[in-house]
Amino acid sequence: MPKKSTESAKPLSSIAFFGSGPFAVPIVALLHAQKKLRLLVTQDDTKFWKKRVGSEVEIWHGDQSYGAQSYGDQGCDDRLHRILLGEEGKGRVDAIVTASYGSRLSDETLRCARLGSYNVHASLLPRWRGASPIQRAILHGDTQSGVSIIKMSDRIDCGGVVLRKRVLLRASETYDSLEENLSALGAAATSELLESLSHGEVCAEPQEESSACWAGKLRREEGLLDWHAPAEHLERQVRAFLRWPGSFFFVRGERIVVHAARLEASAKRVAGENAAGENAAGENAAGENAGRVLRTHPYPIVACGAKGNEGALGLLRLQRAGRKALEAAAFLRGFRLETGANLSEFSCVKHSD
Questions:
Q1: Does CATH number 3.40.50.1220 belong to domain 220-347?
Q2: What are the sequence ranges of the domains in the chain?
Q3: Phi, psi of 289 (to 5 degrees)
Q4: β-strands 37-42, 58-61: how paired?
Q5: What angle do CA 349, 352, 353 make, to 5 degrees?
Q6: In contact, 127 and 108? CB cutoff 8 Å
Q7: In 10 A of CB 45, how many CB atoms?
Q8: What's the fold here for domain 3-215?
Q9: Are the C-beta atoms of 144 and 130 separated by less than 8 Å?
Q10: What digits encode the pLDDT tens for the residues 20-35?
């Protein structure tokens, strides 16, 4: 059964926010505009937030090595808890709200707020708990995503769900476009949360554990394009990893990042068209090998799948290390990539960034 708040209704005037990055910006803007933001704790450069909230909001950094008031340092933690509990003259904070903070809050911190602590998470929990829900949703071809607000517990992203807001994913969705959409949705959900809290009407519904899946923190090596995977998967990877770690392959030891790609017709069909038009690729280039460059004009097309027969990927925008990203035609004027080359062979050896 959903757990309903038993706190009496009372207008909210004091929120402590823990969050970082673009996903947090609309939520902070909302809290600041409503004059409810008491304290902001972030992993970002504090100057970024001072430009947005001014000097009236106390800002802490979440890294002890940063040299400012730092959550995680015992002395600072003691003062933080005094602030949250109202022992420094401004009253106890009504609620703690977190979004994309990057670290788990201590149990002691979670207990400080009068009405509890809540996390705004960029997925439809229990799907994609963890650090990279936006990327995993795109990578795995989800047709919908959204935001969930949960009552925080001692397990990461496992608390009861207070509310969810859904959005359909477009076929062209990238990490940047989905994050922008979900950050605005997160602010709208936070506004609803505060309204419900002010009326004592918050219900937390337990998550369905059997439907849970984990969105682990991204690793740099996940960005390497595995040409043995289906083209559909690689096209989603390019969109999902657009900001970091990027999607890349190697040619003659040089790392090439793909910024935009598209699904093509079957590898055999592309190779057949190439043979008719360019007469440059032998029979082996006709989609029989994963990673085989089927043609290079007007942009490179690469065979994908275990035997090179699970679609083909067109590489539309590429970047060499230390250079700016270019449209494929411009890129190929300064970089040699030949029809018939096998990119899987280049990627089989170890390379350094």
A1: no
A2: 3-215, 220-347
A3: -130, 130
A4: parallel
A5: 135
A6: no
A7: 11
A8: Rossmann fold (3.40.50)
A9: no
A10: 999 999 999 999 999 9
